[in-house]
């Protein structure tokens, strides 16, 4: 099974997507399965994991309804706000859907990432961690330090770092991203998505080799059993076409990797992590 482990669908008229404006014409339109399926077929991908792109419960309901009609949607990673007193109520409703695959913690949107260490937040995530609920962790590189401390407190948390922790590739950022990602990789329940890299690079100026050192080290730290390919389509279109995203990753894979290791990166790890 070959899987794109990270992509989005949206319908602009729903009004969920305040961050997508007419000033971003590449993204300011509907993106639905009919738009992605040709890319999946071209790269022999059987389906995808659709990840929430709006901080609303309603968008998760919409994605789950879309999944009912679309066989290439293997799982939906929904929205959940651990600070919302009704988070458990929404989770219980979502989990009834056969294609609900977990939820995403949107640390990226927090002005102060230290808030994830507040007792109520830790307590809420501990409950889900003890149940083995898969969690996507959306975080920027400057927020990795509090995330590392959170993971120390929640050793059972089953999580995947989105977009390799969003290092500022355009600036050649290495530390403290490198040291913190290596530390986080020490948690055996934590995976990493090789996704969202092109939009962290210099617009219109990036070259495939700009990503090599980041990819090589993520593969070294997490190993072939805890990494996933994700296109981050259609957000990737801000910087690259789908084919270019795949090419960037393929170019940096270790030459000694066999078909088994490639199969894990391009689908089997996602299948196991999300319990598809």
Strand content: 5-15%
SSE sequence, one letter per element: EHEHEHEHEHEHEHEHH
- Spans of 5+ residues with little confidence (pLDDT < 50)? none
Q: Strand pairing plus helix content: what structural class?
A: alpha/beta
The general outline is globular
Largest sheet: 8 strands, parallel
Annotation field: number of helices: 9
CATH class: Alpha Beta
Rounded average pLDDT: 97
Fourth-tier CATH superfamily name: Metal-dependent hydrolases
N-to-C CA distance: 11 Å
General description of the model:
The chain contains 9 helices and 8 strands. It has a single domain (3-273), classed as TIM Barrel, CATH 3.20.20. With 276 residues, the chain is an alpha/beta fold. The chain has an 8-stranded parallel sheet. Helix 5 (144-153) runs parallel beside helix 6. The protein has helices at 33-42, 57-69, 87-94, 119-130, 144-153, 177-185, 212-222, 242-251, 259-273, and strands spanning 3-7, 47-51, 73-79, 100-106, 135-138, 159-161, 190-194, 227-229. The model has no long low-confidence stretch (mean pLDDT 97). The longest helix has 15 residues, at 259-273.
List the helices and strands and how they pair.
Layout: E1 3-7, H1 33-42, E2 47-51, H2 57-69, E3 73-79, H3 87-94, E4 100-106, H4 119-130, E5 135-138, H5 144-153, E6 159-161, H6 177-185, E7 190-194, H7 212-222, E8 227-229, H8 242-251, H9 259-273
Parallel strand pairs: 1-2, 2-3, 3-4, 4-5, 5-6, 6-7, 7-8
Helix pairs in contact: 5-6, 6-7
């Amino acid at each position: 099974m070959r899987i794109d482990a990270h992509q989005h669908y949206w319908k602009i008229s729903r009004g969920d997507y305040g961050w997508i404006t007419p000033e971003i014409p590449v993204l300011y339109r509907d993106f639905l399965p009919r738009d992605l399926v040709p890319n999946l077929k071209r790269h022999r991908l059987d389906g995808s994991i659709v990840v929430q792109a709006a901080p609303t419960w309603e968008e998760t309901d919409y994605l789950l309804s879309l999944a009912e009609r679309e066989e290439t949607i293997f799982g939906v990673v929904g929205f959940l706000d651990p600070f919302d007193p009704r988070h458990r109520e929404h989770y219980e409703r979502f989990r009834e859907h056969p294609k609900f695959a977990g939820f995403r913690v949107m640390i990226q949107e927090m002005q102060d990432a230290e808030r994830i260490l507040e007792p109520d937040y830790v307590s809420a995530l501990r409950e889900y961690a003890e149940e083995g609920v898969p969690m996507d962790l959306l975080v920027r590189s400057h927020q990795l330090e509090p995330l590392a401390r959170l993971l120390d407190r929640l050793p059972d948390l089953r999580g995947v770092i989105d977009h390799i922790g969003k290092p500022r590739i355009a600036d050649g950022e290495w530390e403290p991203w490198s040291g913190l990602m290596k530390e986080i990789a020490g948690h055996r329940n934590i995976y990493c998505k090789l996704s969202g890299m092109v939009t962290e690079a210099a617009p219109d100026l990036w070259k495939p080799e700009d990503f090599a050192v980041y990819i090589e080290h993520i593969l070294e730290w997490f190993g072939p059993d805890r990494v996933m390919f994700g296109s981050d389509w259609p957000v990737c279109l801000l910087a690259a076409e789908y084919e270019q995203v795949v090419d960037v990753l393929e170019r940096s894979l270790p030459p000694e990797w066999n078909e088994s290791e490639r199969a894990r990166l391009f689908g089997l790890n996602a299948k196991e992590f999300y319990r598809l």
